[in-house]
UniProtKB/TrEMBL annotation:
Main location: cytoplasm
GO molecular function, one term: phosphorelay response regulator activity
InterPro entries: CheY-like_superfamily, OmpR/PhoB-type_DNA-bd, Sig_transdc_resp-reg_receiver, WalR-like, WH-like_DNA-bd_sf
Protein name: DNA-binding response OmpR family regulator
UniProt key word Plastid: no
Cellular component annotations (GO), alphabetically ordered: cytosol; protein-DNA complex
Biological source species: Tumebacillus permanentifrigoris
Lineage: Bacteria, Bacillati, Bacillota, Bacilli, Bacillales
Domain spans labelled OmpR/PhoB-type: 127-225
């Protein structure tokens, strides 16, 4: 049985990778290193790590493509690391399914703190189900069913859906959602919420079902359930 969480670090700069290794192993994580996108996907499929730390600017297959492929195959948490800090780069990363984003240069203790925080947030929640007409949110299996179709969501999308669906017809602003779903330590752009809501809508909403994630302009979002 695996004793320590495996952290797959995808980084082509050997000096940075070595620094990550020193700090992650010191905290009890098992460190696995990939130097390019092809090796990253190979190791991901073979080891199924607990978390992936993914540099965007890597050889052979770039980080965005690696992130997209990992997200197609599973829900392993991903922290993107890059020197690119423009807002559009971050939003693209979140749109592809990344759970967090860390800009270079960074302090190794911050990386460790983010790894711990993402792992903590990605743990399955206490067994519980939420049901609406045509919708089952099952936190035992960490899946959603829409009209009996099983849909596997990444951890952040699942957490977001569960939070707003637990409070039907209640409006939440983006800052409140960030605090509840991403945690108080999260310092990213609140448009992250918009990206995740967009992805959720595409995956779960059906025009014939009496619920939807509604935008309340100038405020935020609510899980709207129509009365019979």
């Amino acid at each position: 049985m695996r004793q320590n969480p495996i952290i797959l670090v995808v980084e082509d700069d050997e000096s940075i990778a070595l620094l990550m290794r020193l700090y992650l192993e010191k905290e009890g994580f098992e460190f696995v290193h990939a130097v390019d996108g092809e090796q990253a996907l190979h190791l991901y499929r073979r080891l199924r790590p607990s978390l992936v730390v993914l540099d965007l600017m890597i050889p052979k297959i770039d980080g965005h493509a690696v992130c997209k492929q990992i997200r197609r195959e599973g829900t392993t948490p991903i922290i993107m690391v890059t020197a690119k800090t423009q807002s559009q780069d971050k939003l693209l990363g979140f749109d592809l399914g990344a759970d967090d984003y860390l800009g270079k240069p960074f302090d190794p203790p911050e990386l460790v703190a983010r790894v711990k925080a993402v792992l903590r947030r990605s743990q399955p929640k206490v067994a519980k189900q939420l049901r609406y007409e045509g919708l089952l949110i099952d936190l035992d299996d960490y899946v959603v069913e829409v009209d009996c179709e099983r849909i596997v969501l990444p951890p952040k999308e699942m957490d977001l859906l569960h939070f707003i669906a637990s409070h039907p017809n209640q409006v939440f602003d983006r800052e409140h959602i960030l605090g509840k779903v991403w945690g108080a330590e999260y310092e990213g752009d609140n448009r992250t919420v918009d990206v995740h809501v967009k992805r959720l809508r595409e995956k779960i909403e059906r025009p014939d079902l009496p619920w939807s994630i509604r935008t309340v302009w100038g405020v935020g979002y609510k899980f709207e359930v129509q009365k019979p």
